[in-house]
Amino acid sequence: MNIKILLLNGPNLNLLGEREPGIYGATTLADLESALQSQAHALGAELSCQQSNHEGQLIDWLHEARSWAQGVIFNPGAYTHTSIALADAIKATGLTVIEVHLSNIYQREAFRHHSMIAPVAWGQISGLGPEGYALALRALVKRAESQLV
Fold first, then answer.
1. Is the pTM of this model over 0.85?
2. By CB count within 10 A, which of 42, 68, 69, 117 is most buried?
3. Which of 54, 63, 79, 101 is catalytic?
4. Which domain holds residue 81?
5. How many domains does the chain have?
6. 3-state secondary structure of 31
């Protein structure tokens, strides 16, 4: 069985490399996706990459992924702190989700310290830059492999 992972990025992440590089770094979303595709291939997994600035589109992709994905790497962007709808979608689908943030949300403004997603996610990685995505990918592949035996 081929392990399939969804990489889902939320609002403003299409501007990576341009938007506040002091916080988010110089890596573009295309660079991030390309590196993760290579890592997924090396791990024997397939990675589908999606980004949207629209909450409903993110929900639709989560709903679709329940039929094919063994896990989701999800950076909901600012929706992390506001979206009950995304949390409900994760809970409803039963998907194994790792919430990822490039910056350490707990070192930033107080309103960013609360995640609506964390209570329904399998795990959370915050503040490790692009490496956080790579760690999430490895963790999801390892979990999926353990469920195959």
1. yes
2. 69
3. 101
4. 3-148
5. 1
6. helix
43 within 8 A of 141, measured Cβ to Cβ: yes
Determine the distance from the C-alpha atom of residue 134 to the mean position of all C-alpha atoms in its chain, rounded to a whole number. Answer: 10
Phi-psi group of 69: left, alpha or beta (phi > 0 → left; psi -120 to 50 → alpha; rest → beta): beta
CATH of the domain at 143: 3.40.50.9100
Buried/exposed 90-119: b ≥16 CB within 10 Å, e otherwise: beebebbbbbbbbbebeeeeeebeebbbee
Question: What 3-state DSSP class applies to 108?
Answer: coil
- 63 noted as active-site residue: no
Q: Which of 24, 79, 81, 133 is catalytic?
A: 24
Tens digit of pLDDT at every position of the chain (149 positions): 599 999 999 999 999 999 887 887 889 999 999 999 999 999 999 999 999 999 999 999 999 999 999 999 999 999 999 999 999 999 999 999 999 999 888 878 787 788 999 999 999 999 999 999 999 999 999 999 998 76
